[in-house]
């Protein structure tokens, strides 16, 4: 994670309405949860994919070129697009901005993840059989490692 959620004090105030994740251009972007593609296209010149989730939530992914049509059903982990070149004004270079909304209210998208995955330290992908010999770190739960790989590889 490059930058966390920082909601504005007022509706139109300054803030960061999502989280920024490191993502190389052309990287696969995957749905964080099951839902339906609600939008894929450009918004103010930036390619965006929106996935509607149950309960009135929507996840947004930008800059992302969608690979599925509007109305396509997706499961958690399904590819919804690829990270597009160009970056965003607040995040130039290789960055994926991931947002979460209920109506017009922005929420912290990390709230969709299990508590064990919500942390500020950088995620590190490890082999399923544990860290390489000589590396620093505690024991690795193979199931947690596989779960960690999803959001870090393109939420």
How would you characterize the overall build of this protein?
The protein is mainly beta. The chain contains 1 helix and 10 strands. Strands 1, 3, 4, 5, 7, 9 and 10 form a 7-stranded antiparallel sheet that branches. Strands 2-8-6 form a 3-stranded antiparallel sheet, with no helix packed on it. The radius of gyration is 16 Å and the shape is globular. The model is unreliable at about 135-155 (pLDDT under 50).
Q: What would you report as the Rg, rounded to the nearest angstrom?
A: 16 Å
Task: Give the name of the CATH architecture.
Answer: Distorted Sandwich
Number of helices: 1
Mean pLDDT across all residues, rounded?
A: 77
Question: Which characteristics define this entry?
Answer:
7-stranded antiparallel sheet, 3-stranded antiparallel sheet, Glucose Permease (Domain IIA), single chain, 155 residues, globular, 1 helix, mainly beta
SSE map:
Elements: E1 19-22, E2 28-30, E3 35-43, E4 46-52, E5 57-62, E6 64-66, E7 73-74, E8 79-83, E9 95-102, E10 105-107, H1 142-152
Antiparallel strand pairs: 1-9, 2-8, 3-4, 3-7, 4-5, 5-9, 6-8, 9-10
In brief, what are we looking at here?
By secondary structure, the chain is mainly beta. The protein has one helix spanning 142-152; strands at residues 19-22, 28-30, 35-43, 46-52, 57-62, 64-66, 73-74, 79-83, 95-102, 105-107.
